[in-house]
């Protein structure tokens, strides 16, 4: 994504939040937020086009963006920043804390940050305050804790973009990322970059505009904090030790401990510089050589979690992991008919450009009332899709829907209507706090609906914002396997849902998966690489993933032909 898009979207986002806190008109707040999404998701650099061509950007917003592009802010944003202290805005980031309470806490108690709020609660300073009962205070304290935890790690979408930006900004003979990012974990504590380069690279690194703070500066390692608050470690390694350094710094620590013990048993030593017998180098330049010397298969980074991969690799029994190239289609995408920002035509064209053999459009269904969907609109879209099909003889267009799973497990439409769709994804979008029993029954009922093919973003978590719902996942997985309902691996990086540990458990019960982008804009289609990361961490092969299957096999799974 272009930097200007990202920065302008962030400024408009801040403005919409300040505007909302000030009691601004809810309709305008929504239109700002729609524009934020459209700008962030716009495929071209907005600094190089007329911003009025971005969908959802009218004249008033366009003027603000143009002023922002010129001087890094706009008049209305400056005015609101002056009126609403930054502390109040930071308070509203605490889950369950609304703007009215934030302003009251600031004005009456001088509380200007989540940390100050936690202290006030612990000290009992808010006991007996009107509107803040013991249960509310306990929730707020929990919210602050959640916020602090989420502040320490970022989701992989943020980390991957940052790592790519860092690598592109440096001159090196060889450069790559290691650590949890290379292992494709869904959250990243810090970014680890390795380089073979001249010593001057450290100075070049420290001088980059994304550096907010230099934490440690040395010849071998420099650590910085970026303006986005993420820590990046850059290590310069000898060219001849590239593989050993990659192996060491990719981790995980637990995987490395197991590998190192194997080396020790052979009377060897494994370090970030190489695999040695005394002074003699056995292997160092490539990871492949190191694993081979240890008598095992190469272990793909996403599997390096000490979850049985070492034993399997020693026996030559690692599975052939599913790869991005294996994906033949996307089965969960949106358009501007509901909450997407791109047109049907543009989304389909972008799917085709990825070389897909099939592509499903799955806009929301009527029960998500704010989307204002109707059966007429859905049928109209189906007709348009049928027309578009003529343009794409080598890509099968599937008309689907993302249904809403009601608290009792039922979905939007009766069976005869559902049968008119090629593919139905069904997801939970509300009533997240049902009891474990109710939630489990809800998912099982959705699986048992013969017209539901895929359960979308099953845990409904949003990393750093919303925890997973509580359900007896084993029971849900058994129901999914029994009914032939696929579970989604939603690749949208702030969801990453199902998470890899649950995917692995579900596979154990015989579940099949659909790796979907849940795209709401053209650039989101590229998020599939994160879903592939989750699948690889869960040891999935292409046989486990329905959207790697040839069209005929997929259609049979969907009960179509
Ligand atoms: P993160 O940053 O919390 O998301 O997770 P990682 O895995 O990136 O951890 P990090 O950044 O502390 O270290 C990167 C890798 O370097 C780690 O996965 C394994 C390796 N490493 C770091 N410290 C040690 C250590 O003390 N012993 C061993 N065996 N490996 C280490
Ligand atoms: Ca790391
Ligand atoms: Ca690190
Ligand atoms: Zn959804």
What is the share of helical residues?
Answer: 40-55%
Bound small molecules, by name, code or SMILES, are: 2'-deoxyguanosine-5'-triphosphate, calcium ion, zinc ion
* Apparent shape: globular
Residue ranges: pLDDT <50 for 5 or more in a row? none
- The domain count comes to 5
CATH class of the largest domain: Alpha Beta
Structural class: alpha/beta
Please name the CATH topology of the largest domain. Answer: TIM Barrel
Q: What is the total tally of β strands?
A: 17
The whole-angstrom Rg is 25 Å
Give the number of helices: 23
CATH superfamily of the largest domain: Metal-dependent hydrolases
Q: Which descriptors would you attach to this protein?
A:
5-stranded mixed β-sheet, DNA polymerase, domain 1, alpha/beta, binds calcium ion, 5 domains, 561 residues, binds zinc ion, 23 helices, 7-stranded parallel β-sheet, single chain, Beta Polymerase, domain 2, binds 2'-deoxyguanosine-5'-triphosphate, 17 strands
